[in-house]
Design goal:
Among the domains are: 174 residues, Rossmann fold; 113 residues, 2-Layer Sandwich (Dna Ligase, domain 1), CATH 3.30.1490; 60 residues, no CATH class; 219 residues, no CATH class; 158 residues, no CATH class. The chain contains 26 helices and 55 strands. Strands 20-15-14-23-24-35-34-31 form an eight-stranded mixed sheet, sandwiched between helices. The chain has a seven-stranded antiparallel sheet with strand order 37-36-40-39-38-41-42, sandwiched between helices. It has a six-stranded mixed sheet with strand order 3-2-1-4-12-13. About 1% of the residues have low confidence. This is 5-oxoprolinase. InterPro entries: ACX-like_C (IPR049517), Hydant_A_N (IPR008040), Hydantoinase_A (IPR002821), Hydantoinase_B (IPR003692), Oxoprolinase-like (IPR045079).
């Protein structure tokens, strides 16, 4: 093989370090690691690395102008976190948004859900633009067969979009007006614009016109949403276009700065950048929306191409542990992409690798709080770094490894301290650990627990950190129906090697692979990666034979475009392959999958292959069933063109088979049970096929690898490490309370509830459960007390416990193995009837009564009653709200009672004006999915019992509950002390009035010594006519929600939370109504008003909107339901947030484009009600104005609160604006509908909702507009499909 002409560089510029892999012309390989930012020594790390290597290898790296000589370089490939960091720190270009009139706040409101449901001080990511221009032009779907609006006299022009959909231009663009507005923007110093118009995914003209004008005026960057990503859904497309406009100038500047230091600015050189999808693209085509994962993508490509071995055939989990976070991903023969993901609060619609980032890394802070050991999510960052970095930093995971002897200061570079010339400081670590150990032992002494040594504490923290990293791995694998233990763990990144054996063992994985370049695998991945050209366009076709010709034509056109672009980059035809994809979904669902075809001849195959079979197979594997009766719709057509890279073959070093490796020296390292003599080896001295027995440490210049006792490391032919995991010494856990085990069991119990939820989501069939994720799963002790539940939907918190304990009371000892119960009645712990709870008792051979219970609650789309959806706004008794179950044997000794269940679900038809369930098939399959989810829970707890013994598992169920009780008691003691100091009494009182005049009265009596409270609702108004009555369970959920918000940090949410609280609710009131009372409004409205009362009594913050603004509309054959956000209340030290859901709800809103495509209505306005929040030192958040125009006759129902009484301000703050529901008839008449109404609307009528805003806090005279908010947003933000799923779950 002829020697290559020049040097080849592959570089990963990370947040802390820049890693370099270089191949010299002679074939020699050089690796280097240097600090990404070191202004004293160089201005650009990647260029400096290239200079140093060229200098050392050729003796002359610079040209005559003192620039790096680019004639020596054959190619540079680079990945960079420049885009991610600019997004996290909000340091992109100064940009403006151009959007349709009525939508100026659309991207601020986003999907209206808040990121953290228990944070009263709602922190949302800021928008990227500094200015907005509203353009008065509009295009809508024609919906010819459904639109009844009179069009005569309306100059609406019909056009056909690129997807073949017919569209109407209802308002043309005024070019002069937009030109004037853009010129004004340019004068303000804005360089970059994003243009986002409704339905531009199919109708491009208006965006193109605006783009042309903006370019003429001279903006540096113009991002048109349809050109950046042509997928439907205005909000994510708008975010993507904004990110593109915001980041592209920043990236171009970085690239220009990098290139300027080379001869001729690298003109004509082969410089490629890594994109988020794991493919490379030329330097001049690297843009903002595709650059977010540029850095971590290299690592995924690196392990995918080195660790995925055909002979073991096992899929690989990538485990990349760095300083602040850990990236987890999976590879099973193909890169796993997602097509929409959120980074730093910005949703990007573009192909990107599914990399899950968790807040656990070497820098994760170690904290002891209320009996629990916590590792993360806060991080010490690069500044000040861990305690041992000599900059006064906090105690971290790195310190724990150092204390236990797993990190060796003598092998670490001396780069610490203010001068950056000192070694790691073990003394600082020891001092900090002594302090935290004393704190833990103080706590243990109170309960007569056994004291811990410093090493036991450090080991405990490491175990807790490992468990925190296992949770996302379990979620990533079980989510798709895979078993975590049937994988190989590929470990890379600086900190992973110290944890790999433990993490693998906890997941049941038997092999860990560590590549010889594991410390710089992202850079090595760049060297192996292929060059990718993506082409995609939207479609709106059915997948059936008569559409095949057109689909094949579109795929051929996109493939030709991709090929052409790759050839222009100098890639020979022979190295180009194109991969066709279709984005498919079943009609009536939102769950689209991007699939590549199966190559086979069949009636469902087009020329490019059989996409239908591929779609059905993948749907079945992810969701457990298929919908064979439904049409399959093609949303997008995509081609991925790939220019294959050629990688020189590695030369294997001489084998050391049969020889024993010689250790450098021995040291003492702490493992479970004590210190062990541990040999230290240098990787460079180990030969292929040698074996190292644990315990051992293998040092590599780039990372430290710990081989635990009972494990062995084998060196492969090419010098990589394969660790075989032994069973390990099982630690004997007893029923006595240990802080470490408490933290670990807390994770394990939560993980069980999470995995149950995944099974329920995968096997359910209805939109509510599968896509809106309106369900929760839970685990209960033998006494029916809640141990853990997930996700935390506020309305479900703690409520299921009442349901389980009701069944125990009613059924007594009659329960047997194989029984499953069904309940939803308010008197049996139900919230409202559509929420069906399925409960399975679990038995053990040693006992006759159940040893614990599992349950799942799901919101069913219909269970009969007055109206479709079973949420009638005008019901007056429970019978009108659908089928009610107090305690039905759903499964009797293993036999599913389908006949009896069907009879009950059809029973509401006997009530005048009511119907039985309108969707029996979905009810049956969703209930079977709930039973399956419970089975999964039983299986997981049984595994836990096999591992630890029944007595230990039950003891820890109790310990966890006691721990939550402790956290709440501590908080109540503090509240009692503050109340005494402030008002001289520990009795707190508050009353709030519903819009109909009903009082909700609360008296809280605090006991400062015991940390207990009596919450007495005596004085609350009687049951009401209508459906605003709230079942008892709702009040308990609202209380748990408020307590958790006030505690202010994560506590296990279980029965223990309510133990210190005695709740008195008089029977016959609106909060504990009679058996037949209607309750559907109590669940969605009264629940919000209970929270208002509780927060008012405790004087926590001003009132939020106190409403969910429920809107239902439709005809006999279709229905639409939405809840609308409002303002949140201000508090001591923070302003309220505008246009966001608060307290007991967090539902996402359907995207404007989806609403207008699927339903005969238009969204003409969706923006903030400016200045509507209550004034104060801290201002309340603004409400929202939302306008809907109906395109045919519909029945419109609204169920809202706070239309009479304003949301209160606090401590001198002013109240927020009350809400208002208006209907503007097509003839111009304006009608106030009041808070609750059901009315017939006609084509052309416009519904205008003004939602309530939040109250202000503190007197307005000393306004805090100049004060900064008290806390900045945390710089670390999670990402990936596991995070997306949890966010979606918490937005119900």
């Amino acid at each position: 093989m002829a020697p290559q002409p020049g040097f080849q560089f592959a570089i990963d510029r990370g947040g802390t370090f820049t890693d370099v892999y270089a191949r010299c012309p002679s074939g020699k390989v050089r690796v280097m690691k240097l600090l990404s930012v070191d202004p004293q020594n160089y201005d650009d790390a990647p260029r400096e690395a290239i200079r140093r290597i060229l200098q050392e290898e050729t003796g002359n790296a610079l040209d005559k102008d003192g620039k790096v000589n680019s004639s020596l370089i054959e190619s540079i490939r680079m990945g960079t976190t420049v885009a991610t960091n600019a997004l996290l720190e909000r340091k992109g270009a100064k940009m403006a948004l151009v959007i349709n009139k009525g939508f100026k706040d659309l991207l601020y409101i986003g999907n209206q859900a808040r990121p953290n449901i228990f944070q009263l001080d709602i922190k949302r990511p800021g928008v990227l633009y500094t200015d907005v221009i509203e353009v008065d032009c509009r295009v809508i779907p024609a919906l010819e067969d459904r639109c009844q609006i009179e069009k005569t006299g309306k100059n609406w022009k019909q056009v056909v979009g690129t997807t073949g959909e017919k569209m109407l231009i209802v308002k043309e663009l005024e070019e002069e007006e937009i030109r004037r507005d853009l010129v004004e923007l340019k004068k303000k110093g804005i360089e970059s614009v994003a243009v986002v118009l409704a339905h531009s995914y199919t109708f491009h003209d208006h965006e193109l016109q605006i783009g042309k004008i903006a370019n003429e005026i001279g903006f540096k960057q113009v991002s048109l949403s349809h050109a950046v990503t042509s997928m439907v859904r205005m909000v994510p497309r708008g975010f993507t276009a904004s990110a593109d406009a915001y980041l592209t100038p920043h990236i171009k500047e970085y690239v220009r700065g990098f290139a300027d230091g080379f001869t001729d600015g690298l003109k004509g050189s082969n410089v490629l950048f890594m994109q988020s999808d794991g493919g490379l693209t030329p330097m001049n085509m690297f843009n903002g929306s595709r650059a977010i994962l540029s850095g971590p993508a290299g690592g995924v490509v690196g392990y995918a191409m080195t660790a995925y071995q055909k002979e073991t055939g096992l899929p690989v989990i990538g485990f990349d542990m760095g300083g602040t976070s850990t990236d987890v991903s999976r590879y099973a023969g193909a890169l796993e992409h997602v097509h929409e993901a959120t980074t730093a609060g910005v949703t990007i619609q573009a192909p990107q690798l599914d990399i899950n980032t968790v807040a656990a890394g070497g820098g994760s802070m170690l904290v002891f709080r209320a009996g629990l050991l916590l590792a993360g999510p806060q991080s010490a960052g690069a500044q000040p770094g861990p305690a041992c970095y000599r900059k006064g930093g906090p105690l971290t995971v790195t310190d724990a490894n150092l204390l236990l002897g797993r990190l060796l200061p003598e092998y670490f570079p001396k780069i610490f301290g203010p001068t950056e010339k000192e070694a790691l400081d073990k003394e600082a670590t020891v001092t900090a650990f002594k302090k935290i150990t004393e704190e833990i032992n103080q706590f243990l002494k109170q309960d007569g627990g056994k004291e811990m040594t410093m090493e036991e504490v450090a080991m405990g923290f490491i175990n807790v950190a490992n468990e925190a990293m296992c949770r996302p791995i379990r979620a990533l694998t079980t989510a798709r129906g895979h078993d975590a233990s049937q994988h190989v763990l590929a470990c890379f990144g600086g900190a992973g090697g110290q944890h790999a054996c433990s993490v693998a063992r906890q997941l049941g994985i038997s092999t860990v692979l560590i590549h010889k370049y594991a410390g710089i695998l992202s850079a090595y991945g760049m060297a192996l990666a292929h060059i990718v050209q993506e082409e995609q366009q939207p479609a709106a076709a059915l997948y059936r034979p008569d559409a095949f010709e057109e689909l094949d034509r579109q795929l051929d056109v996109l493939a030709a475009v991709a090929r052409d672009k790759l050839k222009k980059q100098g890639i020979p035809e022979s190295q180009i392959i194109t991969e066709p994809y279709l984005h498919l979904r079943y009609a009536g669902t939102d769950c689209a999958l991007m699939v590549s075809p199966v190559q086979q001849d069949s009636p469902t195959a087009c020329k490019h292959g059989d996409f239908y079979t591929a779609f059905v197979n993948r749907y079945k594997s992810e969701f457990g069933f298929t919908l064979s009766q439904r049409d399959v719709i093609v949303d997008d057509v995509r081609v991925r063109g790939v220019g294959m890279s050629t990688v020189p073959v590695d030369v294997a070093p001489p084998s050391g088979k049969g020889t024993t490796p010689v250790p450098e020296k021995a040291t003492k390292v702490y493992f479970e049970g004590g210190y062990r003599d541990t040999s230290i080896y240098l990787l460079e001295n180990l030969k292929p096929e040698q074996v190292v027995q644990g315990p051992a440490i293998i040092m590599d210049s780039l990372s430290t690898i710990l081989v635990e006792p009972d494990c062995r490391a084998e060196i492969s032919t090419y010098g990589d490490i394969r660790i075989v995991i032994g069973s390990g010494q099982p630690k004997r856990v007893t029923t006595a309370l240990e802080s470490v085990q408490l933290s670990i069991f807390s994770h394990r119990f939560m993980s069980i509830a999470e995995q149950m939820g995944r099974v329920l989501q995968r096997t359910s069939i209805s939109v509510n459960i599968k896509e809106r994720l309106d369900f929760s799963c839970a685990l209960f002790g033998a006494d029916g007390g809640l141990v853990s539940n997930a996700p935390h939907i506020p309305v479900h918190l703690g409520a299921m416990q009442e349901t389980v304990q009701y069944q125990m009371k009613v059924r007594g000892d009659s329960l047997k193995a194989g029984d499953v119960l069904l309940a939803n009645h308010p008197k049996a712990g139900g919230s409202h009837l559509p929420d069906l709870t399925v409960i399975t008792p679990v038995f053990h051979k040693s006992q006759s009564r159940p040893i614990f219970f599992v349950a799942s609650r799901g919101h069913h789309a219909d269970i009969g009653g007055l109206t479709p959806g079973s949420m009638p706004p005008h019901s007056v008794c429970l019978a009108q709200e659908g089928a009610a179950f107090k305690s039905m044997l759903l499964v009797d000794g293993g036999d599913f009672k389908e006949k009896e269940l069907t009879e009950e679900l059809m029973r509401p038809a006997q009530e005048p004006g009511c119907s039985g369930t309108r969707n029996l098939a979905d009810n049956l399959s969703d209930l079977k999915a709930q039973v399956a989810a419970n089975q999964r829970g039983i299986q997981l707890v049984s595994e836990l019992i096999d591992e630890y013994g029944l007595d230990v598992v039950q003891a820890y169920m109790t310990h966890i509950q006691n721990n939550a009780e402790l956290a709440v008691r501590d908080m109540l003691k503090e509240i009692a002390r503050n109340a005494l100091a402030k008002s001289g009494t520990t009795v707190l009182k508050a009353t709030e009035y519903m819009d109909n005049g009903t009082p909700i009265t609360l008296t809280v009596t605090l006991d400062e010594k015991k940390g207990s409270a009596i919450c007495d609702f005596t004085g609350t108004g009687v049951e009401v006519w209508g459906n605003l009555n709230a079942p008892r369970a709702i009040t308990l959920s609202a209380l748990i929600y408020c307590l958790r918000c006030m505690v202010g940090h994560d506590v296990p949410l279980n029965q223990g939370c309510l133990n210190p609280v005695q709740v008195i609710i008089p029977a016959g009131t609106i909060l504990d109504p009679s058996e037949s009372a209607a309750v559907v409004g109590g669940n969605v409205l009264t629940s919000q008003r209970i929270v208002d009362v509780v927060l008012k009594a405790f004087q926590v913050c001003a009132a939020s909107q106190g409403c969910m603004n429920n809107l239902t509309l439709g005809e006999e054959d279709w229905g639409y339901y939405e809840t609308v956000a409002g303002g949140s209340g201000a508090g001591p030290g923070w302003h309220g947030s505008g246009g966001v859901h608060t307290h007991m709800t967090n539902t996402r809103i359907t995207d404007v484009e989806i609403v207008e495509r699927r339903y005969p209505m238009l969204v003409t306005k969706f923006s903030l009600r400016a200045e509507s929040g209550g004034r104060g030192r801290w201002n309340g958040g603004d409400g929202i104005t939302r306008e809907l125009v109906f395109r045919r006759n519909v029945q419109l129902s609204v169920l809202t609160e706070r239309r009479s009484f304003q949301p209160y301000g606090m401590n001198g703050g002013e109240p927020g604006e009350r809400g208002l529901n208006l209907l503007q008839r097509v003839d111009g008449r304006l009608i106030n509908l009041g808070g609750k109404a059901s009315i017939h609307a006609y084509p052309g009528d416009k519904y205008i909702m003004n939602s309530p805003s939040g109250g202000g806090y503190g007197p307005a005279s000393n306004s805090a507009n100049t004060d900064e908010q008290t806390h900045k947003q945390a710089s670390f933000l999670e990402r990936g499909s596991v995070f997306e799923y949890r966010s979606a779950q918490e937005s119900v």
